[in-house]
Amino acid sequence: MSDTLSSKSKKTLMCPSADAEMSGSVIFGIVAGTPEEPHVVHLDRVKAIPQELLALEAPVKPSEIFRIAATCIENGCMHFDGTNCRLTERIIDGLPAVSEQLPACAIRSKCRWWYQEGKEACFRCQQVVRDNYNATEHLFNTVDPSAYSQV
Ligand code: SF4
Predict the structure, then answer these.
(1) Dihedral (C-alpha) 148, 113, 43, 38: value to the nearest 10 degrees?
(2) 103 touches ligand 1 (CB under 6 Å)
(3) Torsions phi, psi of 44, nearest 5?
C-alpha cells in the first residue's frame, strides 16, 4: 500500500473507473485517442454529470466517453477482496505504463487506486476506459472480474 495517503480514511475513497449511475459520480476525464488506443485526458477539476446525459437513451454510455469516479462500494464490487481493489493490482501487473509523469488528476486525493498503489497506478490510468468495446483480448482479460471465480 502506498504510504502517501496511509492516514486517509478509506470511507472517503473513490473508484476511478465507475458508472454514471453510481453514488457520488463525477466526471474527471474525457476519453480521447482512438477506439483501439484510447487515451484519457484528465480535467483540471471534476464536473457534475449532466442530467440530460443520464436521461439520454443513446447507444453510447457516459462511461464510454468520460472517465467517471464515484464512491467506492468496496464489498459491493467484484474486484474488492475485503481489503483491496484487485483491479488496481491487475492493471499494474498486466498493463504497460503509458505515462512517465503523474497526470494532473482532480480526484487523486480520494482515488482508491492511488491510495493502494501510488504512482504506478497513475502511470497506467490513461489507457483505462470502463466501457471499451474495442479492448484487446489482453486488456479484456486483465480487467475481467470473472477471473476471480477461476482461482
Ligand atoms: S490512478 Fe492516478 S491518475 Fe488515475 S484516477 Fe487515480 S489518482 Fe487519478
Answers:
(1) -40
(2) yes
(3) -80, -10
pTM of the model: 0.86
CA distance 126 to 99: 8
Ligand 1 closest atom vs CA 122: 2
Structure confidence by residue, pLDDT tens digits, 120-142: 999 999 999 988 777 778 877 88
**Which residue's alpha carbon is nearest to atom 2 within ligand 1?**
122
CA end-to-end span of the chain, whole Å?
Answer: 23
Sheet holding 66-71, edge to edge: 14-15, 66-71, 26-33, 38-47
CB-based contact 10:58 (threshold 8 Å): no
Q: Which three cell numbers stand for residue 63?
A: 462511461
How many degrees, rounded to 5, is the angle at CA 100 between CA 97 and CA 103? Answer: 95
